[in-house]
Design goal:
The chain is of the alpha+beta class and about 70 residues long. Helices cover about 15% and strands about 50% of the residues. The chain has one domain. The longest helix is centred in the middle third of the chain and has 11 residues.
């Protein structure tokens, strides 16, 4: 599982959990605006919470996001 966090400055503005890495990246590309920080973590679901295994990737968004249809 993958946890995607999108931050504007220091505020988290969007998160999602995905089973597939390409879905996590796709989410980030849809919602992030230029200059936002995107970090994707590999996570594991325990009984009570998500446990972060490690950071998979991070990047700065390069363009405006596409509008949801």
């Amino acid at each position: 599982m993958y946890l995607t966090k999108v931050k504007q400055e220091e505020e988290i503005v969007a998160t999602t959990i995905s089973d597939i890495l390409s879905d996590a990246v796709g989410f980030a590309n849809r919602v992030a605006s230029k200059g936002d920080s995107v970090t994707i973590y590999e996570v594991m679901q325990s009984l009570s919470e998500l446990e972060v295994i490690g950071e998979v990737m991070s990047f700065q968004a390069e363009g405006p996001h596409l509008q949801f249809k």
